[in-house]
């Protein structure tokens, strides 16, 4: 039999036997579940070696997924925790009108003093947008208001430059001749020279007695006329109440 083995021990058979012996001896055959990390050469597990959906969250080290690991458009609203995106996560100029929901921006989202005329549509503000007392003289252009801008019966003497003074005059019996007028200077503090002046009575004067204003010849002084059209002697006026208004 040895002679038979020798006759069949060709070069090819010997090489095949040696190769098989090396594979078995070097551990080329593995039992199930016996391949461990030490059996794998570092850096040799490739993408093609991984099955689809084989890598789960538990296999990823915390904090190791970076921007370069994310495909464009792969993160949408469903992947972001509500309320987790802050100002630091937004790049300058990245939020435009298309990213803001209609009526989503309220007063609390706007910093004080950040809105100027460039952010306001022309002719878009109405009286309901203005706080009471918010418009002063500095907000109104000179000579821009006309009668149509002023409510009827809303202007009083307090709104006019001048004085509005109440006082009294006293004139003795016969001070003014019948059919004549006399002129008197009365003190009106605050009246300015050359202003327009009006005098009105605050009580009913005697019949035929006429009192009227003439002018403001100098500061704090008003000229008044007293006329006698009674048909007789001018009656006595004792502390007769009058009102003097100057303006202009």
DSSP helix fraction: under 10%
Major sheet: size, sense and barrel closure?
Answer: 3 strands, antiparallel
Query: Which of globular, elongated, flat, extended, rod-shaped describes the shape?
Result: rod-shaped
If you consult CATH, what is the topology of the domain at 160-247? Answer: Immunoglobulin-like
Give the ordered list of helices and strands.
HHEEEEEE
Q: Give me the CATH architecture of the domain at 160-247, please.
A: Sandwich
Secondary-structure-based class equals mainly beta
Query: For the residues shown, what is the average pLDDT?
Result: 83
- In terms of DSSP E residues, the strand content is 15-25%
Describe the strand arrangement of the main beta sheet, using strand numbers: 1-6-3
Ends apart, CA distance between termini: 148 Å
| Poorly predicted parts | none
Question: How does this structure look, described?
Answer:
- With 248 residues, the protein is mainly beta.
- It has a domain at 160-247: Immunoglobulin-like, CATH 2.60.40.
- Helices cover 9% and strands 21% of the residues.
- The protein has two helices and six strands.
- It has helices at 2-8, 11-25; strands at residues 162-171, 181-187, 196-201, 209-218, 221-228, 237-247.
- The strands form two sheets. Strands 1-6-3 form a three-stranded antiparallel beta sheet, with no helix packed on it. A three-stranded antiparallel beta sheet has the order 2-5-4, with no helix packed on it.
- It is rod-shaped and about 170 Å long.
